[in-house]
Amino acid sequence: MKKITLFFILAFSSIVLFAQEEEKKTVVATASMMADMATNISGGLVDVKCIVPIGGDPHLHEPTPRDAQLVNKADLIIKNGLTFEGWLNELIENSGTKAKTIRVTEGINPIQSAEYKNSADPHAWMDASLGLKYIENIKNALSELDPENADVFEFNYGVYKKQLEDLDQYIKTAIQKIPAKKRVLITSHDAFQYYGRAYGIQLEAILGTSTDAQAQTSDIVRLNKVIRENKVPALFVESTVNPKLLKQLASDNDIQIGGQLYADSIGDKDSPAPTYIDMLKHNTDVIVAALTRESNTENESAPKEDGSSSWWLWGIIAALLIGGFVMMLRMQS
Ligand SMILES: [Zn+2]
Predict the structure, then answer these.
(1) CA 190 – ligand 1 centroid, Å
(2) What is the pLDDT of residue 208?
(3) Ligand 1 centre and the CA of 34: distance in Å?
(4) What sections of 191-275 are H helices per DSSP?
(5) Ligand 1 centroid to residue 196 C-alpha, Å
(6) 104-108 — which CB contacts under 8 Å span 24+ positions?
(7) Once rounded to an integer, what is the mean pLDDT over residues 298-320?
(8) pLDDT, tens only, 109-134
(9) What is the band of 319 on the pLDDT scale with cuts at 50, 70, 90?
(10) Distance from the CA of 256 to the center of ligand 1, in angstroms?
(11) In this predicted model, what pLDDT tens digit does every residue of 249-276 receive, in sequence order?
(12) How far apart, in Å, do the first and last CA atoms of the chain sit?
């Protein structure tokens, strides 16, 4: 009897699993941060795909035939908006998709680009408290797409929301460890304005809010001045931007590259930033370590040097004493 019941339970659950597998909806996100958010909330109940591969630059993406196929099969498209994906409208048109597109920055008051008039800065995900709006919009869209699983999405969203709130607090506390004068972040492109506004750090970049631009001599002159005046100890390269200009700037000013930051893409599985949360945490840890390093060495270096020079002195005295002792023994014998 028991065996028969077990058989029916197994048969029934495999039918349910099979049905779910059959009905899984496909969600296509433009960039990896949003794909990761959707994966967290969906808990595997929808198929999440990403257009721009990890490490790719979403500003400069050139859609491929594979992208058109992906978008064509989508049941929902997730975009950042605010001028981030200039190539998306054409891709959607060419793909012939009927999927709904949602903008995850809906409800966010964007920072205006300093460089282009009437143009918004797209990098709102860099502020974890705005990331909360992203995940709320994604949760609502998933629930509308797949109402039967809305309870699961709501639950996963609740867990994820708490993690983002903790992350927001973590970053706030960490940035405070940098001496106030040293809170200057110099990067390749202007992706950190939201981060700077939320966590109290001044931003300077070689390029503007898009990587689709050439550096101007006036930008280099401005940055050299900022580095000198604030005694900035380090600059930061980005995972999706060619580091050449930044390396040149660091060597001209004889300062360090503080590390690699992730702004427009999360990192791959083996990187220190394989998720959206890891990306913001890693960036913060790298920034704090590099911008506090100089003041630490200023404090620690003095006693260390004293210690080592006194060891040398004791060594010489000991050698002289031993030498003298050996001489005395020889003279006696
Ligand atoms: Zn960017």
Answers:
(1) 7
(2) 79
(3) 14
(4) 193-199, 217-230, 244-252
(5) 14
(6) 104/34, 104/37, 104/78, 104/79, 104/80, 104/133, 104/134, 104/137, 104/138, 105/80, 105/81, 105/133, 105/134, 105/137, 106/81, 106/133, 106/137, 107/133, 107/137, 108/133
(7) 52
(8) 999 987 677 789 999 999 999 999 99
(9) low
(10) 23
(11) 999 999 999 999 999 999 999 999 999 9
(12) 105
Are 48 and 35 spatial neighbours (Cβ–Cβ below 8 Å)?
Answer: yes
Topology (CATH) of 22-173: Rossmann fold (3.40.50)
Tens-digit pLDDT profile for residues 145-182: 999 999 999 999 999 999 999 999 999 999 999 999 89
Q: Phi, psi (5° rounding) for residue 176?
A: -65, -20
207: CA distance to ligand 1 center in Å?
A: 10
- The DSSP bridge pattern shows strands 76-79 and 26-29 to be parallel
From 90, 35, 83, select the one nearest 62 (Cα to Cα): 90
The number of beta carbons lying within 10 Å of the beta carbon of residue 103 is 17
**22-173 and 178-295, same CATH topology:** yes
Q: Which residue has the tokens 């992730």?
A: 262
**Chain center to CA of 163:** 16
CA pair distance 154, 193, nearest whole angstrom:
30
Residue 202's region, left for phi above 0, alpha for psi from -120 to 50, else beta, is beta
Nearest one of 168, 86, 90 to 120, comparing CA atoms: 86
Query: How is domain 178-295 classified at the CATH fold level?
Result: Rossmann fold (3.40.50)
- Domain spans of the chain, in order of start: 22-173, 178-295
pLDDT in tens, 129-151: 999 999 999 999 999 999 999 99
Q: How far is Cα 58 from Cα 192, in angstroms, rounded to an integer? A: 16
Q: How far is the CA of 99 from the centre of ligand 1 (A)?
A: 26
